[in-house]
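Hi R.,

As promised on Friday, here is the backbone we talked about, encoded as structure tokens. Could you run it through your design pipeline when you get a chance and send me back a sequence?
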């Protein structure tokens, strides 16, 4: 990894799915502020709908991808294999990058990390070390494998550093830099306040909750989804709930024969998936957020908004230990009790160390120093 000249470092950055776009936005901005890095952006096409992809590029002013692999949906094996096949061709066909940078834990992350590692190109993983210790989550497999083959690992929280040490990863490759999602949130918070989403949904600040669901363990299992919908029914009688519907949730509701239930609840406002600025405004002004997303657990901690996570574990423990997050699983009794409790006693919560808006700058400095 010795520099051969003063030429800028050629970093090939990979994005594929919605949470990746939020993370790369801050890195692309930090690259633009230095001459030391020449970035290339590759979009695998894992997410392709306007609402899951283009709107994020627009809201976050992410440069248009240099290469779009156009892979799309499929089973895990098909999607991962197709990303690998097309990505390998693209990497071989271009001037060799000095590193491939992947973010998060989606199928595009492991697919491109694996291709780069086998081509002998250093792999950089942003958001390394997070572990739910739940191997039934596809993301957990992606995290463990991506970290195992990465040459530089950037962590958002100390638990990530500790997990990597436990797995025998050389601590000299691991850096605690904070959270690039926090960078993006802090940089867009003011602009998000201009969003008209509350007017559009006829809501006033502080008078509603937000629910998002898309984990396979919640939405692909009819029995689990039915229990969660029962909880939603109870919650919406006390507080109106906005539910942006992820395509996987929509499919799950159909499969479970539940598609008529949400529209029948007078307190529920279903919408299509929202863009970044609209969703940030919606979260920032919510009384409570219920979710099974990873990123939203972190974003609510930054915003100081109570978060009930409809899972039994989290790979982001700092949001529970320091932030506003609480794990409540999928049992309706437990969800509703926790909901009542947070309304009565909203948690305090602090911002985790280094979630200060400067994480992408720290990453860029380390890339220049280490590569
Ligand atoms: C993926 C990530 C997950 C992340 C989530 C954010 C993996 C294993 N999972 O899950 O970690 O939290 O993105 O949304 O990588 N679909 C569309 N339009 C699209 C993309 C997908 O309608 O633009 C539909 C397709 O029917 C597809 C389904 O959504 O089969 C699921 O998409 P997929 O990319 O496989 O996984 P997500 O559930 O979105």
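Update: got your reply. Pasting your designed sequence below so it's all in one thread:
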């Amino acid at each position: 990894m010795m520099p051969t000249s003063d030429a800028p470092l050629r970093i090939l950055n990979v994005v594929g799915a919605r949470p990746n776009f939020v993370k790369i936005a801050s890195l692309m901005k930090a690259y633009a502020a230095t001459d030391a890095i020449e970035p290339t952006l590759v979009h695998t096409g894992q997410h392709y709908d306007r609402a899951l992809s283009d709107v994020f590029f627009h809201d976050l002013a992410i440069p248009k991808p240099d290469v779009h692999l156009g892979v799309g949906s499929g089973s895990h094996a098909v999607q991962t294999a197709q990303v690998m096949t097309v990505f390998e061709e693209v990497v071989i066909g271009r001037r060799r990058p000095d590193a491939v940078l992947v973010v998060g834990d989606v199928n595009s992350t492991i697919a491109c990390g694996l291709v780069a590692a086998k081509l002998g190109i250093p792999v950089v993983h942003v958001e390394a070390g997070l572990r739910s210790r739940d191997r039934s989550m596809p993301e957990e497999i992606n995290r463990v494998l991506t970290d195992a083959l990465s040459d530089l690992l950037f962590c958002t929280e100390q638990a990530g550093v500790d997990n990597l040490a436990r797995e025998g990863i050389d601590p000299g490759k691991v850096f605690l830099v904070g959270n690039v999602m926090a960078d993006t949130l802090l940089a867009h918070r003011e602009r998000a306040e201009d969003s008209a989403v509350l007017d559009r949904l006829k809501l006033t600040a502080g008078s509603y909750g937000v629910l998002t669901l898309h984990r396979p363990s919640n939405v692909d299992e009819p029995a689990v989804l039915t229990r969660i919908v029962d909880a939603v029914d109870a919650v919406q009688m006390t507080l109106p709930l906005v539910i942006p519907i992820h395509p996987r949730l929509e499919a799950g509701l159909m499969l479970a024969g539940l598609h008529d239930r949400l529209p029948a609840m007078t307190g529920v406002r279903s919408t299509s998936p929202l863009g970044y600025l609209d969703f940030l405004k919606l979260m920032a002004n919510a009384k409570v957020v219920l979710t099974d997303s990873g990123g939203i657990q972190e974003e609510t901690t930054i915003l100081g908004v109570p978060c009930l996570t409809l899972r039994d574990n989290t790979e982001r423990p700092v949001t529970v230990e320091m932030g506003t997050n609480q794990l409540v699983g999928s049992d309706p009794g437990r969800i509703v009790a926790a909901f009542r409790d947070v309304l009565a006693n909203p948690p305090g919560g602090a911002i985790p160390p280094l979630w200060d808006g400067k994480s992408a700058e720290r990453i860029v400095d380390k890339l220049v120093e280490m590569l």
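One thing I noticed while checking it: The pocket of uridine-diphosphate-N-acetylglucosamine is lined by residues 17-19, 46-49, 52, 73, 105-107, 138-139, 214, 246-248 (CB under 6 Å).

Thanks again,
M.
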